[in-house]
Amino acid sequence: MISVQQALDIIDRFPNRFSSVEVKLQDALNLVLFEDVFSPINMPPFRQSAMDGYAIQYSEAEKFTVIEESKAGDSTNYTLKPTEAVRIFTGALVPDHADTVIMQEHVEREDQFIQIQKMPSKFANIRKTGEQIKTGELALKKGTKLNEAAIGFLACLGVTTVSVYKTPSVAILVTGNELQQPGTDLEIGKIYESNSVMLKAALQKSGIKDIKIIAVKDDYDATKICVKKALQANDILLVSGGISVGDYDFVKEALLENDVEELFYKINQKPGKPLWFGKKENTYVFALPGNPASALTCFYIYTLPLLRKMCGFKNNHLQKVIAKSKSVIKNPSQKTLFLKAYLESEFVEILQGQSSAMLYTYAMSNVLICVDSETAEVNIGDEVTCIKLDV
Ligand SMILES: Nc1nc2c(c(=O)[nH]1)N[C@H]1C(S)=C(S)[C@@H](COP(=O)(O)OP(=O)(O)OC[C@H]3O[C@@H](n4cnc5c(N)ncnc54)[C@H](O)[C@@H]3O)O[C@H]1N2
Ligand code: MOO
Question: What domains sit in the chain, N to C, each tagged with a CATH number?
Answer without folding.
Answer: 4-18+168-310 (3.40.980.10), 20-43+131-165 (3.90.105.10), 48-127 (2.170.190.11), 320-388 (2.40.340.10)
